[in-house]
Amino acid sequence: MDCIQLRETHLDQACEIMRLNYEAERAKTKELPEIISTPDLGYFVKNAYALGMIEGDTLIGYLCAYPPIEDAFGTAGVKGTFIPVHAHGAIGNRRKKVYDLLYQGLAKRLVEDRVFSHAIALYAHDQDAIDCFFTNGFGMRCMDSIRAIDAERPIRPAKVEIAELDRNESASILPLRNGLIRHLSHSPTFLKYPMMSDQQLMHSIQRRDSRIFIARNESGIIAYIEVMADGENFITENEGMLNICGAYCLPEFRKSGIVDELLAFLEHTLHQEGIPLLGVDFESFNPTAREFWGKHFTPYTVSLVRRIDEKQ
Fold this sequence. Notes:
Structural class: alpha+beta
Order of helices and strands: EHEEEEHEHEEHHEEEHEHE
Largest sheet: 9 strands, mixed
Shape: globular
Strand content: 25-35%
C-alpha cells in the first residue's frame, strides 16, 4: 500500500468507494434514501489535504479535508478543519489499516501547517473507521439521525395547542431560543453562544428558510421544533427529506409527552405534504437531546473531534 496525493485521475475510483461505503451504511440504516449521484470531490483535490491509498493501480481509500479555518469550532486562535462523511472512504479487508495510514499522512500535513483541531464525520455503523479514529485520539461530538415518517402514527388529542407558526409570528419563540442557548452552556455540554435579539432570530429563520412548529398553553409557547430543507451532510439534501435544526421545551414540561405530541403533529403535516423522511442533528454530549431524539430516530453518522497539543 502506498499513500499518495489524491488527483483528478483518482476521482472515479474515489466516487465508487464513496458509493460502496454509503450503501454499506444504508444496509444497516433502512431509512436512508437511495442516492442517485455522489457529491463531487473535485474541490478537495485542489488543495494539499487530499490523500489516497493505492495498491497497484487500484485506489483502496481516500481522505480529504476542507482548507483550514481560523478560530475553529469557537476556539479563538486555533486553526481547524473538517472532513465530511463523503470526503473519505476505504474498501477491502484492511480498512482500519488504510484509515490509520491515511490519517497519519494527513495529520502530519495539518500539524505542519499548525492546524490543531481535526473533525471528521463517519457513518454510525462503520466500526472499522470508528475504531481507527477513536484509537487515534478522537472523541464524539455530534450525531446525525433519521426517521421514516409514519403515516399511520396516531395523533392523540393534544393537551395543549399544537400548530405551525406563520413566518411573521416566528419571533415569538425568542424566549425559548434563548432558553436553548442557556441550556447548551451548562454541564456537560459547555457550548457558549450569545443571546439572540428579535432581529437576529428573524434573520436566522429567513436565512434558513425554516418553519416553526410550536406547543402553546394559556401562558404562552412552551415548546418548539424548527425544520429546514438542508442539514449537515449531502444525504440531507434529498428532496424527500426535511431536517430539524432546533428544538426546545421548557424544563417543567419535558416529561409530559408534549414534545412527542408536537413531533407527531410535525410528522402528520409533512406526510400530508408528501415528505417521507425527517432528519435531526444534535450534540452527543447533550444528554437531554440524546435521550429524546434517540427514542425516535436512528443514527447514521457520528462526528468525532481531536485537539492536537499545540506545543509542537
